[in-house]
Design brief:
The chain is mostly helical. It has one helix and no strands. 0% of the residues are buried.
């Protein structure tokens, strides 16, 4: 099953892949984005306050 991903999700997946590299990685298209080198920070989903509709 495939899912269409937006650029932000693709960047996070690429960042996780690069994080596991010990020496080097290969970019299929020769493009490297700065977002790939940012730490993977968990952002909890927003929670609705009580009584909110």
């Amino acid at each position: 099953m495939y899912e269409e991903l937006d650029q932000r999700k693709v960047d996070r997946l690429n960042a996780r892949t690069i994080e596991g590299c010990q020496k080097e990685f290969v970019s299929w298209k020769g493009i490297v984005r700065g977002e790939w080198f940012l730490p993977d920070v968990f952002t909890p989903p927003l929670q609705m306050s009580r009584g909110a509709t």
